[in-house]
Amino acid sequence: MYRIRCLMDTVIMLAYVSVIMCHETCTHLQYPQLQHGEQITNDSYLVFDDLYPLQCVKTCISSFVCHAFDYNVRTGTCSLYRRPSGDYVTGENLNYVIGDVADWPRSLAGSCVYHTCPVNALCSAISSSRYVCDVVGCLGTGDKTNTLSGDPAVFQVGYELGDVCKEGYYANTTVVCQHDGNWTAFTCLRLPSNCAELQSCNTSYRDGEYWLYHSDQGTVKRMKIFCYNMTTLNAKDYVTLPYFNFASRSRYVYSNYSTCTTVLADPDTIADHKLGDTEYLKVQLRRSKLRIARGDTTFANYTHKTFYGTAGDANIFVNTTCPALGQFRIDLRNTSFTVNRTSEWILHLSPWSVMENITFSSNNQIVDGLCGGARKPNKPGGCRSSNVFFEINNHYQPDLKSAVIPRCVMN
Ligand SMILES: *[C@@H]1O[C@H](CO)[C@@H](O)[C@H](O)[C@H]1NC(C)=O
Ligand SMILES: *[C@@H]1O[C@H](CO)[C@@H](O)[C@H](O)[C@H]1NC(C)=O
Ligand SMILES: *[C@@H]1O[C@H](CO)[C@@H](O)[C@H](O)[C@H]1NC(C)=O
Ligand SMILES: *[C@@H]1O[C@H](CO)[C@@H](O)[C@H](O)[C@H]1NC(C)=O
Ligand SMILES: *[C@@H]1O[C@H](CO)[C@@H](O)[C@H](O)[C@H]1NC(C)=O
Ligand SMILES: *[C@@H]1O[C@H](CO)[C@@H](O)[C@H](O)[C@H]1NC(C)=O
Ligand SMILES: *[C@@H]1O[C@H](CO)[C@@H](O)[C@H](O)[C@H]1NC(C)=O
Ligand SMILES: *[C@@H]1O[C@H](CO)[C@@H](O)[C@H](O)[C@H]1NC(C)=O
Ligand SMILES: *[C@@H]1O[C@H](CO)[C@@H](O)[C@H](O)[C@H]1NC(C)=O
Ligand SMILES: *[C@@H]1O[C@H](CO)[C@@H](O)[C@H](O)[C@H]1NC(C)=O
Ligand SMILES: *[C@@H]1O[C@H](CO)[C@@H](O)[C@H](O)[C@H]1NC(C)=O
Could you tell me which residue ranges the GON domain spans (predicted)? Predict the structure, then answer.
């Protein structure tokens, strides 16, 4: 965008070169103010291509905040810096020269000597007493301020910003630096909170692990969700469970309640009481409230299905001190979740049932339950959760790379 008016520039350059030539014989780059064979390795705030060396000097003088520059003698790339070159890290590079504006006569800038152009504009002298400010870029927004101590960055016209919204949100449009020095107007929209929203965000997403965003008391928190049935109108949300999660109605029964001796139940009892273990590899999360669909066994294996967070056995717990044999374990390690402590366990209605122990690990990631008892005739007893709620784990999240951050199709 920025092209120095050639004629005027040539005049200024010639004038300046002739001044220098009065003192010494110099060729194109042999100004004593330039430090040869070195480059500034810090990020510059503004870059121009295809400039002559003196144009680079003059450009730096014409920018309100420029103190130093480096210049690639092969490509004509001129990079501007806010501080004297001595404040920066430099590296050897035969294609570069470094200069500081303090070493050059400011008169090189003509009427721009005492300009008040804003940081994102360059001064351009139009007569011996007048100048104009040419906008060359936009000031940094969001976290795109790659400069020191809060200095705003200057991004050149046409620069496209990446993520301008905070985590969990995306911009409604591509944000580009406009010619007037303003960024494209945009609003931040929330990323999907469930798999159905993910489907409408980008119809090309298939079954897999995604980062979705749960709204919780005004903040938006990331959660790793397995989206399933994404090619149907019935997309469902699951949590993949890397650790062992199971629910059992024990296949063992007491043969003697005074000695607490157990035996494997006979096939009829196993069939009648539907005894056996269910291992859950994923559990279904209902939308919005992080409530578990306890009966969903799409990703479970079992001979007789036992609901998630449920345990029982076929024993009759009256006048005995023998422990319950049914167990369940909810183990949310390596997931985005912990168990919400408002989740409650209740006994199945039966005089023979017992709920021995429900224990939460200190960080609420693991819940172990020990329950037993039968509901006659031929009905499993023990305990069940009235509702299992998860909540977002504020102290742990799986590896960011283990799931896809949605990219929504913009209108
Ligand atoms: C230049 O970069 C170095 C390391 O990359 C950093 O320590 C130093 O503070 C930077 N200097 C300035 C002036 O930005
Ligand atoms: C650019 O931004 C400035 C300052 O915010 C504002 O005054 C001006 O109207 C904007 N220009 C356009 C074309 O939106
Ligand atoms: C994006 O949001 C801004 C601000 O609300 C609005 O002016 C602009 O028209 C929107 N752009 C698109 C492409 O929807
Ligand atoms: C997944 O989609 C298939 C085909 O539409 C359907 O039979 C099945 O019940 C769905 N599963 C779930 C868990 O919704
Ligand atoms: C759990 O995550 C840790 C890293 O955070 C990893 O080392 C470990 O193997 C994972 N365990 C399982 C069972 O996936
Ligand atoms: C249970 O065990 C006790 C102690 O060994 C024994 O006295 C009793 O006869 C046993 N009862 C049955 C029903 O086997
Ligand atoms: C359940 O299925 C998984 C995967 O097919 C397998 O690794 C696991 O051993 C099975 N568990 C049980 C209890 O059958
Ligand atoms: C349990 O023990 C109590 C007191 O010993 C007794 O009254 C009751 O009948 C016993 N119940 C059964 C079912 O054995
Ligand atoms: C419940 O479980 C905890 C931890 O496993 C254990 O310390 C406690 O003794 C158990 N309580 C009962 C009544 O079994
Ligand atoms: C725990 O579950 C209850 C009941 O659904 C809910 O009101 C509460 O907000 C949940 N807590 C968190 C931290 O998610
Ligand atoms: C939609 O998702 C596909 C594949 O996952 C991705 O390649 C594409 O870039 C996304 N579309 C947009 C507009 O982000």
Answer: 191-391
Residues flanking ligand 4, CB < 6 Å: 229, 232, 234, 236, 298
Task: Give the ligand 11 atom nearest the CA of 408.
Answer: 14
Q: Could you tell me the distance, in angstroms and rounded to a whole number, from the CA of residue 272 to the centre of ligand 8? A: 26
CA distance linking residue 372 with residue 260, whole number of Å:
14
The total number of structural domains that make up the chain:
3
Q: Are 282 and 299 in contact (CB under 8 A)?
A: yes
Assess whether 249 and 304 both reside in one domain. Answer: yes
117 and 249, same domain (yes or no): no
The pTM assigned to this predicted structure is: 0.75
Number of the ligand closest to the Cα of 83: 1
Contact at 8 Å (CB) between 251 and 271? no
Residue range 215-267, pLDDT digits in tens:
888 889 999 999 999 999 999 999 999 999 999 999 999 999 999 999 999 99
Q: How far is the CA of 260 from the centre of ligand 6 (A)?
A: 10
